């Protein structure tokens, strides 16, 4: 099979069978088409699946390492995205009985560990208190911040919410997250109160839970045209973070991290947090185990024999 045809079929698999998001499909298309273009530029005018071998991948990775990035050469983490896409492509080919290179032979580049960004209790309090509740924008923004911290929703999940989707009496609702994984999320009393107040303040009948204010809103405007975008929520979070003078470059995802951290510090188990966040693999949730580190000193201080008072 020609490589180009294989890529098309793999992308269709992601879209139809894996229910991958449009962004995921777009990214995988980009990574694999760069490989296709590289092979063609290397003299293989019509690459086949058999042209993907260890030597080809070695040269392709060398090529990637020399490509310019936003700041100098392409970062290792970005190069890793290409490798992951190729491995996923090869795994799909193997499952469909194509004779291709084993994906396990390709190693994903290791990246330096980055510290997880989250806000502590004081910072969360300062952030949530920034929007002015006497304005319709402030009330909406406070509801957004409360909901993100309360539920740990991804920004894309929050954007997609409709006003009739949230049950404010039971304070829970269902969402479909990454990879089509469904889960139930729970709303805190504080968040439910703010969301209820925000919804009651609206006089429109538009479906989206969070809509933009300002600009032209006429009878020709559709619900989707008025739905607040992910970029808008990212901007408003950064705005209030700066306003609260919080020394963290926080994003909506930081509030997701903060929610998980808060639960674990309060005694929640890792498996429950995994379900609340919608992680497929417990290993993904384990990035939050850093929060137990602060308890280790307390445990050592309290229980270790060498810390007990004794006369010398």
UniProtKB/TrEMBL annotation:
- Kindly state which keywords UniProt assigns to this record, in alphabetical order: DNA integration, DNA recombination, DNA-binding
Looking at the record, the residues that make up the Tyr recombinase domain are 114-301
Pfam name, any one: Phage_integrase
- A GO molecular function for this record? DNA binding
Q: Which domain of life is it from?
A: Bacteria
- Domain named Core-binding (CB): residues: 1-94
Entry-linked Gene3D superfamilies: 1.10.150.130, Intergrase catalytic core
In the record, the note on similarity to other proteins reads: Belongs to the 'phage' integrase family.
Q: What is the protein named? A: Tyrosine recombinase XerC
Per the UniProt entry, what species is this protein from, by scientific name?
Candidatus Shapirobacteria bacterium CG06_land_8_20_14_3_00_40_12
